[in-house]
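Just curious: can you write whichever protein you like plus the matching structure tokens?

***
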Amino acid sequence: MSEADLLDRILASYHEAAHVVVAYAVGWFVHHRLGVVLNDHRQRANLQCAPSDNTAEASALVSVAGNVGERKLGGIAYLPRAEDDYLVSALARVRNGAANLREDDMSALDRLLQAYPGETDGQLIARYRMAEDEAAALLSERWATVERVAQALRERGRLTRRMVERLVWSDAEGEIAADPAK
């Protein structure tokens, strides 16, 4: 594996781990069959939630978490925070149906736009920034968990729901805590 490929794999593992950790923080979970995947062809945290937990705010929060996690990783490669001008043009693409909603920022903006159709670009961007700030706070509190999930994902390439839950609910010494949802 080349140095560039290794760097891409590290960044992708932290990106997906950040999605997973924030998802569990807001009551979402990994899909029982699809899990979390990191390989040469794709990377994806397949997440689910109960309908009552599927709010625009939670969806935006989980969506932005990957990029926020990459920024928090920092020293390896820096992913800058999206400029407001970019977010305005992204909102225009979402409104026109020209956005790739598999991109995290587009997905977050789409959910916010659906939930708040009468808001201005500035108001929607403020909601997006709030999601980024909340994701950053959650990831700071849970960074050791992000690191555990990212390492396991890099090593295995795929994590099942059960594996993820053992990593998310264990402390730094590997002790498994009770499911906080139960």
Q: What stands out?
A: The chain has seven helices and five strands. Confidence is low (pLDDT under 50) at residues 176-182. Helices lie at 3-25, 56-73, 84-95, 104-115, 121-141, 143-156, 161-168. The longest strand covers residues 36-38.
